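Long-time lurker. I teach an intro course on protein structure, and each term I like to show students one example going from raw sequence to a predicted 3D structure in token notation. This year I'd like something fresh instead of my usual example. Would anyone be willing to generate the tokens for the chain below so I can use it in lecture? Attribution to the forum is fine with me.
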Amino acid sequence: MKTLKLTILTLMLALVNASFADEGSSDKRQAVHLDDEERTRVLEEMRTFLSTLQKITQGVVDNDMPAASKAAKTMGQDASGGVSLSLIFKLPFNFKMLAADTHQKFDQIALDADSLADRDHTLEQVAVLMQNCVACHAIYRIELEED
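-- Reply from a regular --
Happy to contribute to a lecture. Here you go:
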């Protein structure tokens, strides 16, 4: 049921954001214009998401659910702090919603890996979380704002 809800959300976001595409570009994703520092921060967080997903997956492969949980905790809600107000105002609402949901999903993976220690369940959670990544990359592109 959660997967269906996320799929519906993803489709709705794609449809809504299609109207924001740059007319002159063949890349029809919505441009998010950030200064160099903000862009670097957002891209670093995305790379950290990817690295964390690899660590979770490795924990599952090694049947080391405490390692999977530990990795997931690093990108939970606590990791979402410290964002400047200027960046918060520049990010589209749906982008922020996907980011918040992603951090929450990392928290849930950590909790369930600790309490259930069910490798299949964790892999299912990773697959659902990665739908957020795919949706975000399909909808948005990060660009430097013009001076």
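Some talking points for your students: The chain has six helices and two strands. The chain has a mean pLDDT of 89.
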